[in-house]
Amino acid sequence: MKIGTMLFKTIAVLTLSILKEGYAVPCTEPGLTMCVCRGTEIYCEGLNLAHIPSNIPKITTVLSFQVNQISAINATSLSGLTSLKRIVSSTYQCSTAFTKGVPLERQNTWHALFNANKISSIDADAFSDLQSLELLLLESNKIKSIDANVLSGLTSLKTLRLDYNDISSIEDGAFSDLRSLSKLSIDRNNLTTVSANVFNKDVDLRSLSLRGNPLVCCAMADFFEWRPSQNNITYSSGDCTDFNSTTDINSFNVSKCPIDGQWGAWSAGTCSVTCGNGIRYRNRRCDSPPSSNNGQDCIGSSTLYVLCNSGVCTESCKGSGKKPESKRMKTRKWKSYQYRQLNRRGDTRNK
Ligand SMILES: *[C@@H]1O[C@H](CO)[C@@H](O)[C@H](O)[C@H]1NC(C)=O
Ligand SMILES: *[C@@H]1O[C@H](CO)[C@@H](O)[C@H](O)[C@H]1NC(C)=O
Ligand SMILES: *[C@@H]1O[C@H](CO)[C@@H](O)[C@H](O)[C@H]1NC(C)=O
Ligand SMILES: *[C@@H]1O[C@H](CO)[C@@H](O)[C@H](O)[C@H]1NC(C)=O
Ligand SMILES: *[C@@H]1O[C@H](CO)[C@@H](O)[C@H](O)[C@H]1NC(C)=O
């Protein structure tokens, strides 16, 4: 039994190393000569690099750029790297990856590490070829916002860390491709709000960290409505401020927040005459939702008039037989009366 297992293991290891040898990445490409290459892994750390090397072999699975001067990831920097699973620091590899007691998931997860650079700009679709990538670490950079298409294509990404940047906005849909996302960390940024609309609708987060952001509780009402649907979160951390106090995001009760009123739909209204030209009044109410908790009232008029025409007047119409002049006169008087009524009503409703 034991010998059989050993034999199997030896064969497996041999096969693996042959495979690895066969696909080994040489560090001979221009721009990679200062890096350390091991199998399909490339480590370019602490080299003062200003750019990501342009000729990274397509078979690369591991890429480390920790501690450089990289300021941008453009649309082609990482294109075609479909095998890329991590961009990692060697320290992480040595000290953490093989440590006993560290969850297997962490040891075997390939990840991307860009931390301690100066990345302030990431082009749309910069990561779009990295469908194998499971972990992306972008901590300690100068990222100011996450636009909608920056992270598109990262369908396998499980862990995303954006700590210690200057992020003040995350556009709706920014994480919409990240359906495998399990751990998200955006600590120490400049976020005042995180909307539920940034996430994939099927996302199943386990860990969410928003510590050290100037979050405003009532500016993220939809987040607090969405948050209970994430049943599997075992770790969640962050504070938000409102009503002059600071509240843990896990215990904030959104029902205290002011709600601004929104108009409902206009009523259709009916034409004031059964034939000829008339006026149709349409109404709407500030009820979708009504304002509450000192929220703002709806802005604008609650009534609207439009001219209407109910077709040519024939002899069967009411009031036929009267001279057209007198009828027009009557309508005009009635109109101006209604105008005054309308304006008065509008004024009192929206003072
Ligand atoms: C994008 O960055 C790569 C290096 O990462 C560089 O070789 C290439 O010229 C850049 N392309 C543009 C359009 O700036
Ligand atoms: C944080 O964001 C606000 C706008 O929301 C901006 O005025 C301020 O300069 C930002 N602070 C930093 C340190 O980036
Ligand atoms: C939580 O995890 C379980 C097991 O992986 C899964 O079946 C369930 O759908 C998850 N819940 C949510 C809300 O995603
Ligand atoms: C918050 O503090 C300011 C200034 O100290 C005060 O004017 C305001 O009424 C307070 N608001 C609430 C909701 O307590
Ligand atoms: C939030 O506050 C409302 C009203 O004060 C209360 O009815 C509701 O149970 C609270 N929700 C939670 C989750 O504490």
From TrEMBL:
Region of interest called Disordered, as start-end residue ranges on this chain: 316-351
Pfam family, one: TSP_1
Keywords of the record: Disulfide bond, Leucine-rich repeat, Repeat, Signal
Signal listed as a keyword: yes
Matching SMART domains: LRR_TYP, LRRNT, TSP1
Record carries keyword Disulfide bond: yes
Signal sequence interval, chain numbering: 1-24
Domain annotation LRRNT: ranges: 30-62
Full protein name: SLIT1
Organism of derivation: Mytilus edulis (Blue mussel)
